[in-house]
Specification:
Elements: E1 4-6, H1 12-21, H2 23-26, H3 40-55, E2 60-66, E3 69-80, E4 86-93, H4 102-115, E5 122-128, H5 132-140, E6 144-155, E7 158-168
Parallel strand pairs: 4-5
Antiparallel strand pairs: 1-2, 2-3, 3-4, 5-7, 6-7
Helix pairs in contact: 1-3
């Protein structure tokens, strides 16, 4: 069963509703957001930007679905070709869908795409130090902790440390 698909401009309203419903739930894990982010127009602008980067080959923006409804997002960012063949993955699932395996299933699909169709060698992931749920999702797929990056991202209104993880493509070892 597929739980991800490429994001579409038609997703803007549903993603805006999801963003509003999860604003407080996601606040500790995201950068500060302007009020416009939580509107259909704000989501449309973000989707169009992601699809532009997808057309350039640097991003793979997917939504995570649950019984046909959007439950979150998962994106391969910073896709780099050449000798690096690497990217970073980021994902979130709505509060009411948390703990049901959707992030784990979505990450499995994205790993398959990254190492299969995209032919990448490495996927990096970063989590806040206290984000044990996301760390468990990564561990289920064999991601290994490779270090800690001080003041890595501006999240929840402050520069925060992140644990770095990576997964290497076993077919390229």
């Amino acid at each position: 069963m597929t739980v991800t698909r490429l994001i579409s401009v038609a997703d803007a309203s549903e993603l805006a509703s999801l963003a509003v419903a999860n604003r407080e739930f996601m606040r500790p894990f995201e950068p500060p957001r302007t009020d416009s982010f939580f509107t259909p127009d704000g989501q449309l602008a973000a989707i169009e930007d992601a699809l532009d980067r997808h057309a350039q080959g640097t991003t793979l923006p997917h939504v995570i679905t649950d019984s046909g409804r959007i439950a979150g997002r998962i994106t391969l960012n910073g896709i780099v070709r050449g000798p690096f063949l690497s990217c970073s993955v980021g994902y979130w699932v709505s509060g009411d869908a948390n703990g049901r395996g959707l992030a784990t299933a979505a990450l499995g699909e994205i790993i398959g795409i990254a190492f299969g169709r995209l032919g990448l060698h490495r996927i990096q992931a970063e989590t806040l130090l206290h984000n044990a749920g996301s760390q468990r999702v990564l561990a289920r797929h064999g991601f290994e902790r490779i270090g800690m990056a001080p003041a890595y991202l501006h999240i929840g209104g402050a520069w925060q440390d992140h644990i770095l993880f990576q997964l290497l493509n076993p077919a390229m070892s």
